[in-house]
Amino acid sequence: MRLRKLANLDVSAIGMGSAQTFDVTDTASLAVRKEIMDRCVSEGVTFIDTSPMYGRAEWALGEVMGGHRDRFQLATKVWCSGADTARRQISRSFELLKTDHIEVMQIHNLVDWRTHLPYLEELKAEGKIGLIGVTYGYPDKFPEMMDLMNTRRIDTIQISYNVKDRAVEERVLPLAQELGIGVIVMRPTGKGGLVKELKKRPDVGPLREVGIDTWGQALLGWLLGDPRVSVPIPATTRPDRIMENAAPGNMEPLPPELRSYVEEETDRCI
Question: What are the residues whose beta carbons fall under 8 Å from the beta carbon of 15, sequence distance 6 or more?
Fold first, then answer.
């Protein structure tokens, strides 16, 4: 797996999200998640994103990482209002993930960020977290996010970006590039809709020459063709999907003409 820069952290070109997919507790489901994590190890997928808002996902990840914690870079979030509540939530994340260091701690949806940011800076100074980030998935709060980015107090942003959701291209991504802020991409396949809900079957023929065999790989490859992207985080409940998702992370970035083809083919099929 190729590596890309997330601020000063080297991360796998393809990561994995856990929203909805890791909110499990039963033995059979945990066994499948253990297989998913084992596949991540074998395919070189190191960057794993989670959150307290994802139900039992942090707990499940803590259970199934087993002896592989040192093979992963964990990103989680604080998602609450108030300093005391945040401290308890963050402490709980360390406990559930069974770790004493979290590589990326993000303020989810910018909720009460003015309260949380000083505490995250304390944790970073103490070496308990590596990078500080914020997340937001819609354009309405981009101005607030960019104001925070301009303070240079955060290292990463997590935004929604895919071939049909490109609002971040106008101002957010250029600013991230200018400031050296890492970019984590949620919804890389539009919550799966750009694969499962198309009206026509996309033709991946012109992409096979670079090693792309599925439309999901084409969408991830399109993202990796943007050098401002650090790591997209597709989610899955299928262990075999890890191998499919990982493939674009082993390839050279898509050239502009093939990125344009993915855009045109998406428009044809929606």
Answer: 45, 46, 47, 48, 49, 184, 231, 232, 233
Between vectors from CA 4 to CA 206 and to CA 127, what angle results, nearest 5°? 155
Name the residue ranges covered by the structural domains of the chain. Answer: 8-189+230-252
Residue 239: exposed, middle, or buried by beta-carbon count in 10 A (0-12, 13-18, 19+)? Answer: middle
What lies within 8 Å, CB to CB, of 67 at 6+ separation is none
Q: Which CATH class is domain 8-189+230-252?
A: alpha beta
> Which amino acid, 15?
G
pLDDT at 11 over 90: yes
Q: What angle do CA 78, 157, 85 make, to 5 degrees?
A: 10
* The model's pTM: 0.97
**What is the mean pLDDT of the segment spanning 6-34?**
97
Q: Which residues pair with 78 in a beta bridge?
A: 107
Residue 180, Cβ neighbours under 10 Å: how many? 11
Are 248 and 217 in contact by the 8 Å Cβ rule? The answer is yes
120: three-class secondary structure by DSSP: helix
